[in-house]
């Protein structure tokens, strides 16, 4: 890596000249305690380009690594420097297809508050199709949720929350936003939801985790999916099974289509139904032995055809 002298021109615009700002369609940001890695994906004539900028805290300021070269900027805070660049980038675009944040530090609140402030100044509001958050260690998911209200409500159709620890998440605030009716895909991994399943039935592709479920929950999902006139998928993960589900699952779903037992996943059972019209419903139940989590997967597809939902 080539080390450059201390920066004499600390203006944000002077350090990102190599980025084709108007062509950026995806942004990936990884936040650690003393560094931020920002990756910008650009497309031009069906070709993909990726540019990474790494901001690191130093004794007297921060460093910026880009294109294999590292430059030192005195009296610059690495997080403030990153947001000064992000502000410039967002001022030149109104649409980002994919916006992802992986946060691996204890400064979650500070970063997310600054992110919300930066996005709030965008007028018109930034259009984002897919928003993803990944937390490792401490998280502040409510701050992450508050960022959503700064985005264009009609463009956002996919939200993904992931954490490496079991933690409850309150989705009430999201459900009260004008964005909620337009969301088609919601994936929540690690976080445990308390809202009833009826709140998620309008989604085309969903994955949620609950502490426990009831037979009534399964009946609600079965009825909804049997009546579906379009392809959709729902993965329901749950932590605790007192025996009620395992003992009564065939009462709800009837005769099995297949069943198998493996060391890793325990017992896997599957049911298939031909719904009204041209659709087929597949239900898979995994009653885990070695792992704590159990799951049900409901998938409606066009009968006799493959679907991308099967691999999501």
Q: Could you walk me through the main structural features you see in this protein, from its secondary elements to its overall organization?
A:
This protein is of the alpha/beta class. It has 2 domains: 227 residues, no CATH class; 84 residues. It contains 6 helices and 16 strands. Strands 1-6-5-4-3-2-7-8-9-10-11-12-16-15-14-13 form a 16-stranded mixed β-sheet, with helices on one face. The radius of gyration is 23 Å and the shape is elongated.
What are the low-pLDDT stretches, counting only 5+ consecutive residues below 50? 1-6
Major sheet summary line: 16 strands, mixed
Proportion of residues in β-strands:
35-45%
Order of strands, main sheet, comes to 1-6-5-4-3-2-7-8-9-10-11-12-16-15-14-13
Number of contiguous helices:
6
Seen as an oligomer or otherwise, the chain set is: single chain
Shape: elongated
Roughly how many Å apart are the termini? 39 Å
What is the averaged pLDDT score? 88
Structural class: alpha/beta
- As a percent range, the share of helical residues equals 10-25%
- From N to C, what is the helix and strand string? EEEEEEHEHEHEHEEHEHEEEE
- Counting structural domains, the number is 2
Q: What is the total tally of β strands?
A: 16
Radius of gyration based on Cα positions:
23 Å
